[in-house]
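Limitations

Structures in this collection are predictions, not experimental determinations, and the ligand pose is part of the prediction. Treat each record accordingly. The example that follows, with N,N,N-trimethyl-histidine as the small molecule, is included so readers can see exactly what is and is not provided: the inputs are given verbatim, and the output is the predicted complex.
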Amino acid sequence: MALDREMLLRWFHDGRARTREVFAIPKPETYYERPIPLRNPIVFYEGHLPAFNINTLIKLALKEPGIDAGYEVLFERGIDPDSVDAAKPPTDQWPSRRCVQEYGAKADALIERALSDGPIEVNGGEAAVAILEHEQMHQETLMYMFHEMAYEKKIARKPLNVARALSPARAGRTSGATQKIPAGIATLGNDTGFGWDNEFPAHWVEVPAFEIDRYNVTNGEYLKYMRATNAEPPHFWARHNGEWFWRGMFELKPLPLDAPVYATHDEADAFTRWRGRRLPTEAEYHRAAFGTPSGEERLYPWGNEQPDASRGNFNFTNWDPVPVGSYPAGASAWGVDDLVGNGWEWTSTVFDGFKGFRPMASYPNYSADFFDGQHFVIKGASPATSRDLVRRSFRNWFRPNYPYVYATFRCAA
Ligand code: AVJ
Ligand code: FE
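Predicted complex:
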């Protein structure tokens, strides 16, 4: 991989700047709170990003000394515990915000120097890109964590990027629209450029013919299902005076019936069964998103052009989901909408390494720790997914009952 240092530096600055904007959402007095009981307090994440950069690029890849050994252990890692007990902090004594931010400033200066003229070519520059994408992944983690906070603890602000006008003509065409996808080959994985270890190696999967919904299951459809079955409401809903509301990022909204429902894998799976259907596999998602009638495969559902705000609801252009079908310019070759953006898509595929998986040098535990049969693959993107993470081979994963992530689903058969 040819390293473009200017590009990496710009990406680093932009990433750190966006992280600062995200950290400006919770009011300062909430700094030691834990918006999600299973996750670390807010302070951890502000320390984790610079500490991860130092641990990964400076210490592990470049074999140079770090800045503060204590911080680089305290803030090293802390994701996805399976119980509140396991989420116990490494200490009850977190540093002051001033200290965390001073550490962050020193770390940023060191990373900038390394990106400008350090020997970052090791492993093809893998560690340099890994820290940049790690920053962006955590911006999304922070967003859905801050989503949980009471509105009075947050400072509302406009989305970080400008959205395109939506296409109301197509919005709302939902129920029952399905698409037949003939048998064919799907390419999974990555064979060019940077990818996380779980994206390698690239390989080909034969996908039998199947059918898939053209739109995500909406709140309106989920409401009918709840009425018919007495299923519990999704985590993102609230009920007041007999009316249903959507718990948006900064405000409670009357439940948008034509927006995708955010649900857990368990809820999604139960809904599809009730419909006499099932969730798509990861390979079926690929086929529906990137396959074409001619057999050629695309980089994105809409073609090979770079992602932008006309293609889907991602990259911080909206805080909340918008009506399904709002991005006709993002539809796949089969006319399946919103496969990238407006909420990650649950698949029925248990997260695992592809055949030939090798842990990455820069972060050997990134994926392998989660090959435990307890996580399912989600694909696509949410409103809080950076456009730099929008790539065909990118895989994300969560536990089937994890209710916080911005994930929706559609039915397959
Ligand atoms: C890939 C989003 C599941 O946030 O738990 C961040 C990403 N790994 N730091 C997570 C991650 C280490 C991870 N997910
Ligand atoms: Fe992390």
